[in-house]
């Protein structure tokens, strides 16, 4: 499994879609799955940019991983977002599933501009600020956990063109 991390607007889903088109990778879009599953207060929290509780996220991810298997290889998009999710992925899977973490780095102002253009209903300026704050608060510890488990982490400048980022990702995973 390859984990794609990055702030909202870094292009995680765009890159994962491109990787999955050729059939060598399966894309597991955790954020979209959760948006489709959740309702009521949880849906509202997501719309406001808040991260759902690990007790809600981890079972969904676990079940989807079990359902999809790892052939073709999984690309996990939108998880982990917390330390506990990172520990679970690194430690509590039957086999060492995570072989690589790709961290798409981007400046806040570039990400905000992208998010406002895409026009998704949860991309209000307030929700974007909440998501970015959570990302900046948690990404260091999430990456540190993967590093502590000896999982390779590669950082890519996500402000490049979509094609350039895709080329870099493909070079790294081959």
Describe the overall structure.
The protein has a 5-stranded parallel sheet, with helices on both faces. The protein has one domain (2-173): Rossmann fold (3-Layer(aba) Sandwich), CATH 3.40.50. The chain has helices at 12-21, 30-37, 40-47, 54-68, 83-91, 108-118, 125-148, 162-173, and strands spanning 2-6, 25-29, 73-77, 100-105, 152-157. The longest helix is centred in the last third of the chain and has 24 residues, at 125-148. α5 (83-91) packs parallel to α7. It has 174 residues and is α/β, with parallel strands linked by helices.
The amount of beta strand, in percent, is 15-25%
Per CATH, which architecture?
3-Layer(aba) Sandwich
Global mean pLDDT: 91
Largest sheet: 5 strands, parallel
Strand ordering within the main sheet = 2-3-1-4-5
* The CATH C-level class name: Alpha Beta
Spans of at least 5 consecutive residues whose pLDDT stays below 50 are: none
Structural class: alpha/beta
Map the helices and strands.
Elements: E1 2-6, H1 12-21, E2 25-29, H2 30-37, H3 40-47, H4 54-68, E3 73-77, H5 83-91, E4 100-105, H6 108-118, H7 125-148, E5 152-157, H8 162-173
Parallel strand pairs: 1-3, 1-4, 2-3, 4-5
Helix pairs in contact: 1-8, 5-7
